[in-house]
Protein: Transporter substrate-binding domain-containing protein
Organism: Breznakiella homolactica
Amino acid sequence: MMKKLWCVLLVLMLVFVTLSCGPQGGSPAAGAAAANNLQRIIDSGVLRAGLSLNGPPIGGRDNKGEPYGYDVDFAQKMAETLGVKLEVIDVDGSTRIAALTSGRIDVAFANMTGTLERAKTIDFSIPYLKSGIKMMVRTGTAFKDVEDLNMPSVKIGVGRGTTGEELALKFAPKAEIVYVSDFTDQILLLRQSKVDAVFEDSTLIDFTAGQSNGTLTAPPRMYSSDPICIGLPKGDMEFVRWVDMFVSWMISSGWQAETYEKWWGTPPSANLTVIW
């Protein structure tokens, strides 16, 4: 009787160990999930990249409707490295995370700052660009700083769910927030005097002010130092590792710096760290 009991217990222990341990110390299901996105993209032959095409030189569309810009070049380079075609899917500040969590896109090259709060929902690569939030106003106005905007009569144009929105709410809580869908709308409202100031990444602000023939001004203060990262589906660390390696190689090879200078006309001012 005792012998049979020990045999049963031994069988149960073996079953438990088999179910608990899989490849690389995880469960079989977890091991499959870890390689799922990378292999799925390769097998499908398509990289679905979410891109924000409303703020050159990060991303925009030409007269023929074709996407162009720094993020587009980076997404295209990733697709070429994987040996697949690139499918561009339009996203903005309010839809880029939802597009990832719903599985509508594989990666988000959407001028997105990596933050701890966002990292609760999605994963991030190492930074492939660094920028900071800056303010832009019409030339000749009295507004020189965000604190100057803290009045009920002032209107600030920002995208919902952006770092610029957080800044405006924190330092100018008395001002009226006007939400826009993209950076193009921010500039339009600013030119039409429907808002008094806008906040966006310095990469967009500096480029736009420089192209405005003196009608728009970007005061020099930088309100943050933000890591711009590739957004990735949550929980697939094998895919995160591959993307980190890809970004590292683009930086160490000099390709990232060349691409930056191609679009901004100057070498990148921020140093990026490689981990591979």
